[in-house]
Amino acid sequence: MRLYYSPGSCALAPHIVIEETGADYEPVRITLAKGEHMTDAFGAINPRRRVPVLELDDGQVLTETHAIMCYLADSHPDAKLIPTDPLGRARAHEWMNWLASTVHVTFATFFRPERFLGEGQAKEPMQAAARQRYDALMHEIDGRLPGEGFALGGFSVVDAHLTVFLRWAARMDHDPASYPTYQALVRRVQDRPAAARALEIEELPPL
């Protein structure tokens, strides 16, 4: 397998998960800041030109963070990365759908406002609102998380996904320490050998 990622992007979540599985894979860096996602070679792999992308051994391609993490968890059941009971599994999807559809989109309106604006519209009001909204979302997550363990009890794909968004808070000038329960969870994730390896490969410091 090959996992295409850009350092510090949402691809960090499946990067942590694939390391948790112990699967044999090749990490392939696609640096968004250098425009490497716009090359013809990468466009042939993912026409949307976004990461993450998981290329399977038979050549099939999976995109989207949620889908990739669920595939990895389901194809490596011994790693116990997603609940198997119906309610626990629904809770995992509940978290990940909300993170993708609400938290990630709020971040995008701050860093990629041009995606959401018409020609000639000022970006500053949207960015100011997004920054305020992101802080509120971080506090919401902080209030939902347990003081010990992980989001669903044991470590799961949800915790890998959550790790991304606290790291992004710092990029919006929000202090991660403002969300102490959330910060503590992310540090527990980062203490796991799999997350440490993913961070090392992406050349990212822990929070």
TrEMBL record:
In terms of CDD domains, this protein maps to: GST_C_Beta, GST_N_Beta
Annotated GST N-terminal domain residues: 1-80
User: Does the record's keyword annotation contain tRNA processing?
Assistant: no
**Family of this protein:** Belongs to the GST superfamily.
Q: Please, which domain of life does this record's source organism belong to?
A: Bacteria
Output the PANTHER family linked to this UniProt entry: GLUTATHIONE S-TRANSFERASE GSTA, GLUTATHIONE S-TRANSFERASE-RELATED
Keyword terms, alphabetized:
Transferase
Alphabetical list of InterPro entries matching this protein: Glutathione-S-Trfase_C-like (IPR010987), Glutathione-S-Trfase_C_sf (IPR036282), Glutathione_S-Trfase (IPR040079), Glutathione_S-Trfase_N (IPR004045), GST_C (IPR004046), Thioredoxin-like_sf (IPR036249)
A family per Pfam: GST_C
Q: What is this protein called?
A: Glutathione S-transferase
Q: Which source organism does the UniProt entry give? A: Caenispirillum salinarum AK4
Q: Which GO terms describe its molecular function?
A: transferase activity
- Domain GST C-terminal: start-end pairs: 85-207
